[in-house]
Amino acid sequence: MSRKLQSGFVSSRRPGEAFSAFLHDADNIEMDVDGSVSAGPPLYRHTVPAGEVHFMYHLTIHLLDGTVNLDQFGAIGTLSEGVLLGFYNSDDELVLDPTGGHPIVDLSDFSFFTGIFLDKTVGNVDDIFISSWHLPDTYGGPVRMEPGDYLQLTIQDDLTELTEFHIFVHGSKIVNSS
């Protein structure tokens, strides 16, 4: 039986203890990788461990590159295949798709679901792009994720020219003590 992720108002207080985590592959948080390789696109995830329930409140998308323009993906230009962001249940079913199946091909595409953009020069070297997504503003409350559920970014283009690219998640968790 397929299970949907739940969102909505939980309480006036955040349940459990706070957590923060980077999306990552096996052991790497750096997402400036080549997603056009034939071995399949790199997948970066935050997976809820067994015995825990996570309430996802906030995502921060951070990109650092020589030039940052909203009509490009860093200095790369517009991506051909882009990146995909989605929430999946423990049965690997996509249950929450913030872009409606459309890949993110330039930085302005993050505006479909995020509300804050900062684009500024850091010293004389790189520009920085920070996009902040407060999930309760979009879904009426935090996104509740059960053990085995995950948030995933799929990279489908070559992003090796970027200086840095990360996604950081914030929320609260309840740990089952049994």
Gap between N and C termini: 25 Å
The count of β-strands is 11
Q: Which structural class best describes the helix and strand composition? A: mainly beta
Give me the number of helical elements.
Answer: 1
For this structure, the quaternary state is single chain
The largest sheet, given as strand count, sense and whether it forms a barrel, is: 7 strands, antiparallel
Described by the principal axes of the CA atoms, the overall outline is globular
What proportion of the residues is helical, as a percent range?
A: under 10%
Strand percent estimate? 35-45%
Mean pLDDT: 83
Total domains:
1
Estimated radius of gyration? 16 Å
Characterization of this structure:
- This protein is mainly β and 178 residues long.
- It has one domain (31-170).
- It is built from one helix and eleven strands.
- It has one helix at residues 135-139, and strands at residues 6-7, 17-22, 43-47, 52-65, 83-88, 94-96, 116-122, 126-134, 143-145, 150-155, 164-175.
- The strands form two sheets. Strands 1, 2, 4, 7, 8, 9 and 11 form a seven-stranded antiparallel beta sheet that branches.
- Strand 7 and strand 8 (126-134) form a beta hairpin.
- The longest helix has 5 residues, at 135-139.
- The chain is globular, with a radius of gyration of 16 Å.
